[in-house]
């Protein structure tokens, strides 16, 4: 345990900045991970990394072991939907993180893939082998992984040229008036809340989201969503921007939901297999909890 004390000269300083100055032997990202994991306490209480010091606090830091330098195989459940010599398509469950990141060093899709297939593309680095694209933690559905570097380059080029077709199902709050719609406002990091993205600033990376209504309920609408780009949180941001947030997505304005996840499912993907040159379409069945939730709305 590391014990620190804030003085009057530290008043107004962010907690993470204070720790970075006092503990230069640790990176800012590691210190932020510890704050988020509850390993940092200010006068015995947990606070966000943006907490502003008053200048008279006692601060305790409980260091954690450094994260692994490479992803390791783990015997985790894995539903493989399709595989050939170049690519693997998996049905990722909601709650599973795709690869290691802040505060998450095991239990990821990458750990499961390494256990099942041993060798994956190395272009993503030793913490992200095989990963060509991603799904949010609480989004379920089909995701691709590359088995070789050549396959990784081929798939990455397909994603970059927008030739990969990605279809999602999303249940949103409210009754969407138009049967079809298109959103193309650019997306960037929200400067006021760094865990969010935003399309309200009129700048950022180009993003294209299209939808069509599948079914309307009294207070909800089930949409089929197609994305032409793969920006962070893209579907969630664009649907929230038209005042129809995804059910369960409290980050973008939806009320609390008994689901414990987003009602967002990557239902189908179409791509050209680098192994055969053939067009492949892979469909991920809608999870039972989402089917049950829809049934409760009828």
Describe the structure.
By secondary structure, the protein is an alpha+beta fold. The protein has 2 domains: 2-61, Roll (Structural Genomics Hypothetical 15.5 Kd Protein In mrcA-pckA Intergenic Region, Chain A), CATH 3.10.290; 80-297, Pseudouridine synthase. 19% of the residues lie in helices and 25% in strands. It is built from 6 helices and 14 strands. The chain has helices spanning 15-22, 28-36, 109-117, 149-160, 234-241, 288-297, and strands at 2-5, 40-42, 58-61, 80-83, 87-92, 140-146, 165-173, 180-183, 188-189, 197-198, 209-216, 220-227, 264-272, 279-283. Strands 4, 5, 6, 7, 8, 11, 12, 13 and 14 form a 9-stranded mixed beta sheet that branches. Strands 1-3-2 form a 3-stranded antiparallel beta sheet. Strands 9-10 form a two-stranded antiparallel ribbon. Helix 1 packs across helix 2 (28-36). The mean pLDDT is 93.
